[in-house]
Amino acid sequence: MLELVMVVDDNDADLVYTEVVLRARGIARQVSCYDTAAAALARLADTRQPPVSLVLLDLNMPEMDGFAFLRAYEGQQAHPERMVPVVMLTSSPESSDRLRCTAHVCVQGYVVKPLSDDDARRLLTLAG
């Protein structure tokens, strides 16, 4: 079981659904939901907070999309080996989006919404 999973998505229904799946399947002890990428980046940068085990990141969000989040997150990390693993959780099945995302060192997976039980269980191995 993962200690703390961060879910970043601008859609409230997707946030609620993903949190329910993670909790019901015993994937995460705690789930923190963020509706903006900027708020999630600020939380990740706050070293006074408990460590995040995994980030589930939507790709298509207003203001700062998933690509901008990945660039900013990797840019703020002095030690890439210490980055929290990121799994893209997106509605985009496009192979071009998948390739762009998985080119980032922190991205450990790409899942098309909604999060299935099998995908949820696979998160345990992706974060380890």
From TrEMBL:
Keywords: Phosphoprotein. InterPro entries: CheY-like_superfamily, Sig_transdc_resp-reg_receiver, TCS_response_regulator. Residues 4-128 form the Response regulatory domain. It comes from the Bacteria. The modification 4-aspartylphosphate is found at D58. PANTHER family: RESPONSE REGULATOR RCP1 (PTHR44520:SF2), RESPONSE REGULATOR RCP1-RELATED (PTHR44520). This is Response regulator. It comes from Piscinibacter gummiphilus. The lineage of its organism: Bacteria, Pseudomonadati, Pseudomonadota, Betaproteobacteria, Burkholderiales.
